[in-house]
What we know:
The protein is an alpha/beta fold. 46% of the residues lie in helices and 20% in strands.
Amino acid sequence: MNPTIEINPLVLIVSGPSGSGKSTLMQRILDMDRTMPSVSCTTRPRRATESSWKCYDFVTEEQFEAMVREDEFLEYARVFGKHSYGTPRKWLVQSRETGKDLVLEIDVQGAAQVKKKLPEAVGIFILPPSREELERRLRGRGQDAEEEIQRRLAQARDEIQAFGKYYDYCVINDDVERAGRDVQAIVTALRCSSARNRGRVQSLLTSFGGKG
Ligand code: 5GP
């Protein structure tokens, strides 16, 4: 096959309620070769658990507003009505320059905006096995006050309601190893889809003297 045929890398949206384990599953996708993360900007303060690895670009409200004015975001939203989060466009540019599939861990509002701009983007929704298990995980993290836990549970209900609108795949995270294999299988299947490989197959066919 002709390796020089150009196809846009995948844009993968990973969403799910807080506590569904979506960050871990996003990491499983990033463990695959030819993938890269989108690092979001946020005005939320850094948590103590976030000091050792880079998951966000923490910015001030003023910096965030300036980025909005300069149209630097592919999407942005106010999450939990409190802090702003946004996906800088630069990651999409970098993904296209390097040919790496781009993985966005964003909320449902962000997914709606990305799907509108890039209809070919693929949405993967991560679900907890039950409401009780989600609540147990949120409490177990010990990072949020009671009010915040209740807010996240209410938000989970709203997000699950929006599932049918923007998502192509659903993975239930009852066993992180199996769910990890599931998300990797989704990416592998997408990479092998006939729609994405049409150009390559055509080129191969031409080398046989065939016509499309
Ligand atoms: P957390 O504050 O717990 O890290 O994230 C809160 C929520 O914001 C999660 O649902 C997460 O997926 C979402 N989020 C993180 N980055 C972005 C982003 O760039 N855009 C949008 N729309 N949501 C984001």
